[in-house]
Amino acid sequence: MARDVGSGLSTTPKDLSPWPKYFYDAEGSRLFEEITAQPEYYQTGAELSILKSRSEEILARTRCRELVELGSGSASKTRALIDAMIDANGADGPPPRYVPLDVSESALRESGERLVAEYPGLEIQGFVGDFDLSLGRLLGRPSDRNRLVAFLGGTVGNFTPQKRRKFLGALRAGLREGDRALIGLDLVKDARTLEAAYNDAAGVTARFNRNMIRVINNRLGAGLDPDLFSHRAVYDADLERIEMWLYSEAEQKVQTPDLEARFEGGEGVRTEISAKFTPESAARTFEQSGLELLDIYTDDRDLFALALGGPA
Ligand code: SAH
Ligand code: AVI
User: Fold this and answer.
1) Ligand 2 centroid from CA 277, angstroms
2) Phi, psi of 237, rounded to the nearest 5 degrees
3) Which ranges carry the Histidine-specific methyltransferase SAM-dependent domain (predicted)?
């Protein structure tokens, strides 16, 4: 982490967006859940509506008995897929299995405990880990079932373009014949709707953004003052992405054995990108990674999409 943060704070402009995982300690996971309940943050409701209306069709079509979920978080939307997987599987063959992976241990434990209680017939094997590093190992586990690998929430948009290609390439390489991938993509739309979603009136996204500074303080002893940072999120229509930034209102210095950095007063650091897709850019993204795009499902307001793919 010291190496990542050190390199992110030594570029001009400062850029921590290649490492969105540093948002998600227990407090970051809690704040993300709070974001999903904000009226401006349309993604969660839109994706849930697609999952509710299409899960049955997706599971009937893919006939998967194992649901692998990357960056599962609270897994609250996943129930639609789990229900459909259980319904689509007759009494024959191995029981359905759910395999979530998340870097946030608290989110994984809480969601796992809830699901164990709710679904007595479901096998659950959760993994705490970083999908940047362990996707190959996760998908390389032996399995006697067709797998549906879900990556919900639009988290694929948080990768830099280079990391996105690498990640989807690794996902493609890990899919076996009969496996499918289901990837949530937030869609391009007017800048006002997008910027409102990342600058909610209650200030929850601002707190989520500042939480990255707290994580850096807690883990690296950086001693930055989170309250000196102001939050801004802007939509770049050319790059089709939201960028979240934090601006230090005063000069601040970090000097630890592992990390040295300095913020000028007014200097910013990009903390997150969140790419938005069109059906065309989604198809291009899949093609570049060797994934065959089988279908794109959208909600009735075309806010969000779920792309279903398989090994090409
Ligand atoms: N899928 C959920 C959560 C999305 S938030 C939803 O749709 O609501 C993004 C999730 O990805 C968080 O739970 C976070 O902890 C996890 N995450 C972020 N970077 C990660 C990484 N490198 N490896 C594993 N999980 C990661
Ligand atoms: C997890 N990810 C898809 C969220 C997003 O919308 O990019 C994270 C987030 N950042 C600010 N608000 C929500």
Assistant:
1) 14
2) -70, -30
3) 2-308
pLDDT the model gives residue 280: 96
Q: What is the pLDDT of residues 37-91, one digit of tens each?
A: 999 999 999 999 999 999 999 999 998 999 999 999 999 999 999 999 999 877 6
- 108 CA distance to ligand 1 centroid (A)? 10
3-class secondary structure per residue, 248-271:
ECCCEEEECCCCEEEECCCCEEEE
CA of 13 relative to ligand 2 center, distance in Å: 21
Looking at the fold, whether 108 and 161 belong to one and the same domain comes out as yes
Q: Is the pTM of this model over 0.90?
A: yes
The DSSP string of 131-160 is HHHHHHHHHHS--SS-EEEEE-TTGGGGS-
Q: How far are the Cα atoms of 45, 141, 173, 264 from residue 137, in angstroms, in the given order?
A: 32, 7, 11, 42
Q: 156 pLDDT band (50/70/90 cuts)? A: very high
> What whole-number distance in Å separates Cα of residue 151 and Cα of residue 9?
29
Q: What is the CATH number of the domain that holds 170?
A: 3.40.50.150
Nearest CA to ligand 1 atom 19: 21
Q: Which two tokens stand for residue 114?
A: 């809830």
Q: Which residues line ligand 1 (CB under 6 A)?
A: 20-21, 24, 29, 32, 71-73, 77, 101-104, 107, 130-132, 152-153, 155
